[in-house]
């Protein structure tokens, strides 16, 4: 069951500007090492950074409690589909509440968009 849906739209040019002015500080403060490596593997990292920023913002909207930028990371599964990975504390909080998060991402030349759905996890069956 869907508990909450959040979205965020980010200007790629705005992220490009922040990254150009403060590259090391921007990366280390907002993105995990894995996210940084993925973004920096592209000729232009701004779209990849912007869409990850949007995903973090969208998750923050559905979570509704304070969290750090690096508590949420965007990764990919074996097929390349985006996934959210969480810090240990946030992962524990989600599990205690029986919740999971789903994410979808999109970016074009000017904008990056993310939608996050917070959903209930089915209870494990006991024999």
Automatic annotation (TrEMBL):
Compartment annotation: Cytoplasm
The keyword DNA repair is annotated on this UniProt entry: no
Domain 4'-phosphopantetheinyl transferase: 4-115
Chief localisation class: cytoplasm
Residues annotated to bind Mg(2+): 8, 57
InterPro entries noted in UniProt: 4-PPantetheinyl_Trfase_dom (IPR008278), 4-PPantetheinyl_Trfase_dom_sf (IPR037143), ACPS (IPR002582), Ppantetheine-prot_Trfase_dom (IPR004568)
Keyword RNA-binding attached: no
A GO term for molecular function: magnesium ion binding
SUPFAM superfamilies, per database record: 4'-phosphopantetheinyl transferase
GO cellular component: cytoplasm
Keywords: Cytoplasm, Fatty acid biosynthesis, Fatty acid metabolism, Lipid biosynthesis, Lipid metabolism, Magnesium, Metal-binding, Transferase
EC code: 2.7.8.7
Cofactor(s) the record lists: Mg(2+)
Gene Ontology BP, a term: fatty acid biosynthetic process
Known catalytic reactions: apo-[ACP] + CoA = holo-[ACP] + adenosine 3',5'-bisphosphate + H(+)
Enzyme class, first EC level, given as a word: transferase
Functional description taken from the UniProt entry: Transfers the 4'-phosphopantetheine moiety from coenzyme A to a Ser of acyl-carrier-protein.
Stated family: Belongs to the P-Pant transferase superfamily. AcpS family.
Record protein name field: Holo-[acyl-carrier-protein] synthase
Organism field: Oceanithermus profundus
């Amino acid at each position: 069951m869907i508990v909450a849906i959040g979205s965020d739209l980010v200007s790629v040019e705005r992220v490009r500007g922040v990254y150009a002015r403060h590259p090391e500080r921007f990366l280390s403060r907002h993105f995990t090492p894995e996210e940084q490596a993925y973004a920096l593997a592209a000729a232009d990292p701004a779209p990849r950074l912007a869409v990850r920023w949007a995903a973090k913002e969208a998750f923050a909207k559905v979570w509704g409690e304070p969290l750090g930028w690096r508590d949420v990371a965007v990764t990919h599964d074996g097929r390349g589909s985006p996934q959210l990975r969480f810090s240990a504390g946030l992962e524990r909080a989600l599990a205690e509440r029986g919740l999971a998060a789903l994410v979808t991402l999109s970016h074009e030349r000017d904008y990056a968009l993310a939608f996050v759905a917070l959903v209930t996890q089915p209870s494990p069956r006991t024999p």
